[in-house]
Amino acid sequence: MKNLFQAARVLLLDLASTLLFLAIYLLTDNLLLAVGLGMALGVAQIGRELLQRKPVAALQWISVVAVLASGTATFVTRDPLFVMLKPSIIYAVVGAVMLKRGWMNRYLPPRAASVLDVATTFGFVWAGLMFASAALNVALAFSLDAKSWAAAMSAWGIVSKVGLFLIQYATMTAIGRRRHAAAQGSETAGGPAAPLPTT
Q1: Model-level pTM?
Q2: Does 97 map to a domain?
Q3: CB 97 within 8 A of CB 62
């Protein structure tokens, strides 16, 4: 359970600026305030990582650049369509980055060494989810008003990501346990030791 919460915490931090934007916009109906706070949080997160001399993940850089670009366009034009289309750009770019083999390793605890191949497969599944989300967002941005769009994409974003995250965690845990049990049997019979399971 500790590993589940650790992985969830990292995922939520990566999504924080988008979640803050959606929450503020839904609560206040103030587009410029929501964009401004989302931009500020994204920059603050990157700044904190740099000050602590920690490596900044490619997904974090992409998210902040996209937030700043679309946020600036929104402030200049005051057109909510820029904000509504922004997630599609982010989803598409993030999906492309997620096609890189092994990107998910930063989210995994050391105990997940025995299921890195499964994580790689799920990395491609996550990329597929990002591309599907990009397409859905474009469709909704051109067919809904700003507030309905924000509610729909907020619900989709949270449900789809949390759902896939839980499916991945359950699958990797089950496979990890099965492999650990098989390795224990092999070790008892004189075979090589195996890594610990993911739980």
Answers
A1: 0.67
A2: yes
A3: yes
